[in-house]
Structures are given as structure tokens and as C-alpha cells.
Amino acid sequence: MFHILAHDGVAADILPWLPREQYDVEQQSARPDAILLRSSDLRAAPIPKSVLAIGRAGSGVNNIPVDDCSRRGIPVFNAPGANANAVKELTIAAILLASRNIVAAWDFARNLKGDDASVAKQVESGKSQFDGFELTGKKLGVLGLGAVGGQVANAAIAFGMRVYGFDPSIGVDRAWKLSPEVIGAASVDDLLSRADIVTLHIPLDEHNAHFIDASRLALMNRGATLINFSRAGVIDEAALCAALDSGALRAYVTDFPTRAIIDRPRAIALPHLGAATAEAEASCASSVADSIIDFLENGEIRNSVNFPRVILPRAGRSRLAIANRNIPGVVSRISSALAAANLNIENLLNKSRDEYAYTLVDLDAEAPIETLDVIRRLDGILSVRVVPKSVRTD
After folding, report:
1. How confident is the model at residue 392 (pLDDT cuts 50, 70, 90)?
2. Least confident of 20-29, 104-113, 205-214
């Protein structure tokens, strides 16, 4: 029986995907095997020693201490792309809100006073202040062409927009899904200087903090619109406010309100609605549940943000899952320790990702506790786990 600690109401969404005879989903647990969450902040909370994996029912993991988890050999899983359609639809809505001044116009209309004749007169005299522009023929710059950005680019093509995209790390699979009408920008600066509207779909990490700063805002066309459904921290807020106040930016739409943004008339701030649909929450829950099941039952890693993808069909009578630092000689030392115990390796797969690596080893017999202890003491080893024999085949 695996014990799952579920935060943020994840339990209700996750239960249909976890077999009850094998998983006990709890809102409190002293010794959980895994933690599942959405927005709860684990960075200041102690993570029990029993935890083998953490799953985020969403894409961003900035509420999880990923570096600490990596040093303990704990994979952190997310659900990339599971909420992409929801965020794509809201991004398109944000572009429409900004282009037609819908929020300000609605606020104007709902505060009109008087009878119908008076309202009609006020409408005719006041509507010109909300003049907007049509999307057809406008230039959209999409920074980040992952699951969300790629869908936004394709949807904008359908609106008749001229779409530029930039993503230096785009994979072949993502590239194939892009409309051939999406134009590749030569660089971030090239994209910013071309577009009438720029939408951001990049992660918030140590490389992207304040990625859009004063110098990059200065590259944008005067009167351009900026959409940020990534994270608040990818933009230098002081520089952004200065651009809004000066009119350099026509509008800013974000899913991450702050006091400074809320108080800017040219800004539209939504209360983090990007993935707030029943469909997206269910999709994220099922995706992360699949990853947790694969890891706990088979030791396999899919959709981890800190360890490599490792998929290995079962062979032999016993399986070991080993997380280690990515340094030379680790696999050979593991093999030597197993050979010293007269254990034969039926199958082995080792993959690395940046500073860390992960190894699955299938053996012809159970490894003695003493052998496991030897492996745990090897230089670079972070965690060693015997993967249970009872594996579902459905």
C-alpha cells in the first residue's frame, strides 16, 4: 500500500486515477510515499524522509524546493501540457480584452447613470475613448513555443495575425505541431522589435527572472501590448510600470496581480485563472497520477523536472531504482557491488540530466540488505530503492 499526501483539494481529482487497493490518499500523513499538490508552498515546509516523489498537478514548480529534492534523490513530477488548452484559450481572450479595451469599456457602461435616453447619450459621447484595433494583419510575437505557446501561435494564425515565434529549446515534436505559417524570429530581441503584441510562455527559473527588463521593453514598438501568463517574476515590474505610465506600452495583461499592476489603468490583472477550468484540473491530475504510478510501481520516470526520463521494461526477479550525482564511475561501482554479492544483472538503464542521473537495474535475485547498504555508501549515490514486485499489468 502506497500512502499519498494530497494538498489543495487534489485528492478529489486524483482518486479516480489511483487504485484504492494500492493507494491510500490522505490529507495528513506522517510517512507519505509521495506528495501531490497544486499551489501549496513546500519551500518552507519539512519534507518527510519517507517521501519518494512529489507531483505537481500543473506545469510550474516554483512552489517546490526542487534543488533540495534533487540532492535527496526525489523526482519532482509535473503535468506539462495538461492545462495547455485552458491557458491558450485565456491568452487569446487576453489579447481580445486588450485590443478592444473591453475591460475599461465594460466598467464605463456598467457605471452609467440615468434613464435609457440619458444612457444612450452618454454611450454615444463616451464610446470613442475605447476605440481599439482588429487582430487581422497585426503582428504577434510568441516567446516560448512549448505546449501553450505553440497552441497560441496556431490559434492566432486562424485570426489572420502574422505570427513570429522564438524558442531556442523547441523540440522536434513541438516544431511539427506548429503551423507552417509561424515565422521563426532570429532572437528574443528580433521578436520584440517586430511585434504589435507579445505574449510570454516561458518558465520562471534562475535564467528567466526579470527576463523582460527595461532594455527589452525599449525594443518593443511604441504602443505595443504585452501579455504575461508565464509568471510575474519573468518581468521587471518597475520597468514595466514605467513603460505603461509613459505610454510606451499600450496595455499589459497578466494572470498575476500585484498592487502596482492593479493600480495601473493600462493594465488588466486576472486572479491566476490560466488553468482554472474543471477540464484542466482533471487533465493535470490524471497526468501526474500516471507519473507517480509509474515511478512508485516500476521505478520509471516520466515528466520529471529534475531527473531524466527513464523507461525500462521489467526483467529478472528484482528491480533497484538508484538516483545519483552525474559523476564518472558510478554505474561501474554499482555493478561491482552487485557482482560481489553474486547477483547477475538482467537489464540496466542509466540516464543523466545535468548534475543528476538515474539508474534502473533488474537482477536475477533479491539484493541482500548488506549489498544495498554498500551501494548507498558509494560516492555520489543519493537514494536506493527496491521497487516492489507487485506490479499491475492493466
Report:
1. low
2. 20-29
Q: What is the pLDDT of residues 215-232, one digit of tens each?
A: 999 999 999 999 999 999
- Residue 227 sits at φ, ψ, to 5 deg, of -115, 130
Q: What is the reported pTM?
A: 0.78
Task: Residue 234: count other Cβ atoms within 10 Å of its Cβ.
Answer: 22
What dihedral angle (degrees, nearest 10) is formed by the CA atoms of 222, 228, 233, 235?
-10
Question: Distance between CA atoms of 377 and 62, rounded to whole angstroms?
Answer: 31
Cα separation of 147 and 75, whole Å?
A: 22
Give the Cβ contact number of residue 309 at 10 Å.
Answer: 12
Q: What's the grid cell of residue 282?
A: 482533471
Collapsed DSSP state (helix, strand, coil) of residue 268? strand
Give, in degrees to the nearest 5, the angle at Cα 298 between 292 and 299.
75
DSSP code at position 141: E
User: What is the per-residue burial (b if ≥16 Cβ within 10 Å, else e) of 97-112?
Assistant: bbbbbebbbeebeeee
Which pLDDT tens digit goes with each residue over 125-163? Answer: 999 999 999 999 999 999 999 999 999 999 999 999 999
- Residue 196: name the closest of 155, 135, 254 by CA: 135
Q: Is 137 exposed, middle or buried (0-12, 13-18, 19+ CB in 10 A)?
A: exposed
pLDDT digit string, tens, across residues 6-65: 887 776 777 777 877 889 888 788 899 999 998 889 998 889 999 999 999 888 888 999
Count Cβ atoms within 10 A of the Cβ of residue 347 and give its class: 0-12 exposed, 13-18 middle, 19 or more buried.
middle
What dotted CATH number matches 1-83+278-307? 3.40.50.720
One-character DSSP codes across 201-237 = ----STTTTT-B-HHHHTTSPTTEEEEE-S-GGGB-H
CATH of 308-394, one of 2.40.340.10, 3.30.70.260, 3.40.50.2300, 3.30.450.40: 3.30.70.260
CATH class of 84-269: alpha beta
- 99 near 134, Cβ under 8 Å? yes
Domains of the chain by residue range: 1-83+278-307, 84-269, 308-394
